[in-house]
Amino acid sequence: MKLKIIGAGLAGSEAAWQAANSGVQVELYEMRNNKRSTPAHKTAKCAELVCSNSFRSDEITNAVGLLHQEMRLSNSLIMQAADANKVPAGSALAVAREDFSEQVEATLNDHPNITIIKQEITELPQANDCQTIIASGPLTSDALAQDIVKHTGEEKLYFFDAIAPIIYKDSVDFSKAWMQSRYDKGDGKDYINCPMDKQQYYDFVDALNLGDKIKFKEWEQDTPYF
Predict the structure, then answer these.
(1) Which end of the chain has fewer CB atoms within 10 angstroms, the N or the C?
(2) Partners of 27 in beta bridges
(3) What's the pTM value of the predicted model, to 2 decimals?
(4) Which domains does the chain have, with CATH numbers?
(5) For residues 34 and 68, is the Cβ–Cβ distance under 8 A?
């Protein structure tokens, strides 16, 4: 059996791994290569994380942590790479981004049933082609996105994530701030805690609003943020 997977992000990489381990011959397509990328990615590696390095809570007492454990029991490649490249984040599962994606890509490359093809797919495969999984995410190329819209009838496909301000560590007064993990979990010093009263908090927000801001990239300018 042959399977095509379009998109080598987290979902596509995991799907390729699971299918290949079941004896399926997998062609994994990723448009990012030495000549083509996206406005957010920095490399052409599989499963590169661009929004956050956190997989959220790793505690089995909640839905996210339970899913992590179920994936581990299913021999998940994503969880293997996440556990191998974990960085301190309290009870959350956070990873070193570059090391994580390098391990995922190397493992997929070494699998005899997986062929990684770094080229853009501009339209959905024909119905008489082999079985296909579309695992392309919010940074899908314009051509493929338009073809997906044509087939699904959806006019807009949106993805939103939080935007966090960056604060320099040397601007924090550690005679008042301290290192501590959320709910005293993790190694005890995963986060910087800055105590504020109500007025200090409002002053902090005002200072953020007056601070230097990055300019929207061309592809972000017309996005209907809320």
Answers:
(1) C
(2) 4, 115
(3) 0.74
(4) 2-152 (3.50.50.60), 169-212 (no CATH)
(5) no
Q: Is 104 exposed, middle or buried (0-12, 13-18, 19+ CB in 10 A)?
A: buried
Q: Which structure tokens are listed for 91?
A: 């009870």
Q: What is the pLDDT of residues 106-140, one digit of tens each?
A: 999 999 999 999 999 999 887 777 899 999 887 88
Cβ burial, residue 92 (10 Å; 0-12/13-18/19+): buried
**How many CB atoms are located within 10 Å of the residue 199 CB?**
8
pLDDT digits (tens, 9 = 90+) for 147-206: 988 888 876 666 666 667 778 889 899 999 998 887 777 677 778 899 999 999 999 899
* 108 touches 46 (CB < 8 A): yes
DSSP tag of 56: E
Q: Measured between alpha carbons, how far is residue 172 from residues 145, 192, 195 in Å?
A: 44, 9, 11
